[in-house]
Amino acid sequence: MALRSVQNLACLVLALLVTSPHQARAGATLSIVSGDAGGSEMTLAGDMASLLPAKAELAVAAVPGDCGLRNIERLLETPEASLAFVATDALYAARGEEPLRTGRLKLVAPFGPQEIHIVARSGIASLTDLAGKDVNLGPEGSGAAITGARLFAALGIEIRPVALEGAAAIAALKQGTIEASVVLGAKPVPLLAKLDAGASLHFLPVAFEAPLESSYLPVTLGHDDYPGLIAASAGVPTVATGLLLLTADVRSDPAFEKNIESFVATLFSKIDTLKTGQHHPKWRDINLAATVPGFARADAAENWLNEHQQGTPKRAIEASMNMPALGRDQKEALFKSFVEWQRAKSQ
Length: 347
Description:
CATH architecture of the largest domain: 3-Layer(aba) Sandwich
Number of domains: 2
Strand content: 15-25%
CATH topology of the largest domain: D-Maltodextrin-Binding Protein, domain 2
Helix content: 25-40%
Largest sheet: 10 strands, mixed
CATH superfamily of the largest domain: Periplasmic binding protein-like II
Distance between the termini: 15 Å
CATH class of the largest domain: Alpha Beta
Radius of gyration: 19 Å
């Protein structure tokens, strides 16, 4: 699926009018193109926006996106797009098609695992039950669509793909016009966290078996993530890709570079404040120092990390690497393994 240089740019301009409540009334604004309006990436972007005072010279605006090819296109072609969340499956799919263009993408921060949620109607007990059924994968080119298609292909299950956005897909599930929907997002996904058993919906387990072992990570959805759908003593196995925050090396604008530096300094130095309170739980998994094979880190991020390798800042980075369930080294090794595999398959 080729990247498109002009498609949907008008939609972006309209989307930029709907920004985070943390956006300042004056001064520069960096937009973060995120995921579905009901997705966790919008929450993560809003959390980052909250780090900046209301009257600061720099503000951050959260903009709905798809975590996929459209987000990449916006970074590369649209001046209004400053940063974007991109799923690793989508990133390597894009690089396989246009390596020179996507080589201009730069890593700001890796956000760790992005879980695959498969929500199904009652009567569907397993992934194999979806063979020949209508399954929503999300809008064409989105992170969910790319990952969902690859997942079912790897498992040898032929479905009838549907392309709906998050809220529309949940409505279609409740109406019975589709049998399941793939939602790619950092748990808990706000749209799914609102559901309960009364909706006659449930998560399908995704076993971490041979067809998936080389490209995904094993994870579990639990009661704390989705108390309305998962019992306190239960857990639903699934798999995860990676989620990255990117910018693009496409501008020769000193002011833009200065704003990116200011944003990175604020985010990196205040990362611990996002791991407490009402912020998204995924902040506890972030590893600022992790790398993504084949992609360079943005200068602002690289310089900040190089300058803070001693004393308290270093301890903050090390603390951010501690993840539940798996140790830091295990988690980083697994993450690097699957992105390395994705890098190789796109060459």
